[in-house]
Give the backbone structure.
Amino acid sequence: MFAIVDIETCGSKFAFQKGRIIDICILVHDGISVVDKFSTLINPECHISGFFTNISGITNEMVKDAPKFHEVAKDILTYTEGKIFVAHNSSFDYNFIKDEFSSLGFRFKRDTLCTVKLSRKLMPGKRSYSLGNLCESIGIVIHDRHRAEGDAVATAKLLDLLLQLKTQSKEYKSKSVSQIMTTRLESIKKYVLDKIPESCGVYYFLDKDGRIIYIGKSVNMYNRALSHYNSDLKKSKAMLNDLTTVDFVETGSELISLLMESDEIKKHKPLYNRQRKKDVFTHAIDVFTDEKTVVNFKIVPYEESEKSLLSFTNYTSARERLEAWIEAKELCLRYCGLTCDESVCFNHQIKKCKGICAGQEEPDEYNYRASQLIKEFSYNKPNFLILEKGRHFQERAFVFVKDYTYHGYGYLDESAQINSLDDVSSYIVSKQTHPDDNDIVRSWMRLKKREVIYL
């Protein structure tokens, strides 16, 4: 059974302001002919501009008393349930309807068939595969063009012809329509999309031997996993060729997903991950105040670090970061450990250092700029919780920092009262701490405003 769908909209889902559906038609097709129909205008609850009225002929006055989407949502579910969703350029119609259901808190999911792609398979060599041009080339007359019912009826006639061509084809006669359209990659894609939810968390791609080949994270794992199939990168294509199955962990919290992804990549070292794969840190940028009360930065071996701002997997990365700070804050090479202790630094000679090394700048002025960096890359307090969104509405997530170091995360009931560490200690999932975990937490606190409880 097929559900042949066409919609008209008052905007593109890719435009600055998201469009809405204003007209929909669903024709139920049993493989031989159309046996049922649902068709209605829809009040989009927004203004229809003249641009879209010129396309469809649908005016604001026409939809004023029409039902809103939520009022016809049940009908749409009923007419498409258990059927293959068919449309000409199906991703457009399907994604619009899917987004409308998503705004209602419901996941709309149907198997889809695109008559554009099927036409290319069964009628190759056409000048154009747009609905209007294709129908004209094969003698299908479209009545009421750019209205949902008119275009749906034309798509139904096109599907009838395509089904006839399939039965006449030696190559495709023994195959179902779905088999004609489905490659191995599409089969895996369907499996992935069926299994991964549209929620925040960490997902895993595994090969035929059960080895983890890729780990990713997203606030919407479904959409992120889908994006791999739309990539033209050689790495993505190779990864998808090796992909056999998937797994995931819902976190609720985006911060926890970032930390979990980083930890899991270091633990499993998946073939197709590059970022955060290294777990051996060789150098750090330390900060200290000398006997002249001047703030110093210095690259040191990681094991000799006493008060580091950032840690690195090689000296070159540490040097590049320190040089960027020097450039941005007009820091002195001497007080960054990049020239001898008593010399006037080269940057002062080319007017990129204000002269702290030549006695021409007061320590307080220099320290103010240095303190801006320290504030950016350090915590205000030693012990605290960052409260985050949980995995469901009755839950809160938290990330735990102890003695200026990330220690783990956990989940609490939404109503739980937190007055001390004792209130959360039994809920903490302790994690091995990697130096870049603190970088992740600090960056999150700079970029995101979240509720913090100091302990």
Remarks:
- The first helix runs from residue 50 to 56.
- The chain has four domains: 2-180, 184-268, 283-376, 384-454.
- The chain is about 35% helix and 20% strand.
- The CA atoms of residues 393 and 414 lie 8 Å apart.
